[in-house]
Amino acid sequence: MRRANSALCLAAGLTVTGSTHFALPRPFDEIVPRGIPGSPRTWTYLSGAAELACAAALAAPRTRRTGAAATALLLVAVFPANIKMALDHRARNLRSRYAAYARLPMQLPLIGWALRVRRDTGR
């Protein structure tokens, strides 16, 4: 995949997930770790806005390198929510558990993808 296409595909994915935080916030509210101060809805909207900001930065060649680094950091920052989701889904049906558990290892290739976009983008 061409470098720009890779960045644009990552941006598209972030646009979809970021938009979903606003269109269907309830599932995201449920995975906000309990120890985080403030309203889960606030964190849902903040993380959705961060995903959209990363997507916009990735889409623009001038900000792509910074956007890729921010994307990698964001994916690390939201990992505790994925852990909470996996723990909360332990007693659910197999399909639900599988979906929750699959999110955990998927973070690593996504982080790697963002870091590859950063590396491949000129300074």
Automatic annotation (TrEMBL):
Keyword Acetylation: no
InterPro entries per the UniProt record, alphabetical: DoxX (IPR032808)
GO cellular component entries: membrane
Pfam families: DoxX_2
Keyword ATP-binding: no
Localization per record: Membrane
UniProtKB keywords: Membrane, Transmembrane, Transmembrane helix
Subcellular location, principal: membrane
TM annotation in the entry: 67-86
Membrane-topology annotation of the record: Multi-pass membrane protein
PANTHER family: DOXX FAMILY MEMBRANE PROTEIN, MEMBRANE PROTEIN-RELATED
Name the record gives this protein: Putative membrane protein
Native organism: Actinopolyspora biskrensis
